[in-house]
Amino acid sequence: MTREEIFMQQAIAVGLEGMRAGKGGPFGCVIVQNNQIIASGCNTVLATNDPTAHAEVVAIRQACAYLQSFQLTGCELYASCEPCPMCMGAIYWARPDKVYFANTKADAAAIGFDDAFIYEEMARPMHLRKLSMQCLDSTNAIEMFAEWQEKGNKTLY
Ligand SMILES: [Zn+2]
């Protein structure tokens, strides 16, 4: 097995264990830095009643806590399934160097985890989306942005 295949096997094992324990769906993730697994996570949506507790998000939180950093520079992320739109967003924010996945989103859709509608929704104009969204004008909100811009000694990310 290649090193990538070995790490992917770990991601799958974590997902399998979580699924069998009833924590959530069949999804696992490990994050690797310098050829070492620094974090792993399974889907814990059911165990924690947290719809954002996808394996990738769980692993990213653990890796960032371990590294004491909000960036995963120099890391590789191994997900047992192609990341959903939420996880893709989280992965882009975390900025690992590379993502590997095994099952595809088509494989996930075939067992009832279909995120195609989210991709479709995001491509639609706001007024045509199924989720109602409305922009409320607020001076306070834009003032908060102005204060951030003027704030000294801030960390950009
Ligand atoms: Zn996800």
Automatic annotation (TrEMBL):
Signal peptide: none
Keyword Iron appears in the UniProt entry: no
PROSITE patterns tied to this protein: CYT_DCMP_DEAMINASES_1, CYT_DCMP_DEAMINASES_2
Superkingdom of origin organism: Bacteria
A Pfam family: dCMP_cyt_deam_1
Ranges where the CMP/dCMP-type deaminase domain occurs: 2-131
Protein name as it appears in the record: tRNA-specific adenosine deaminase
Organism (species): Limnovirga soli
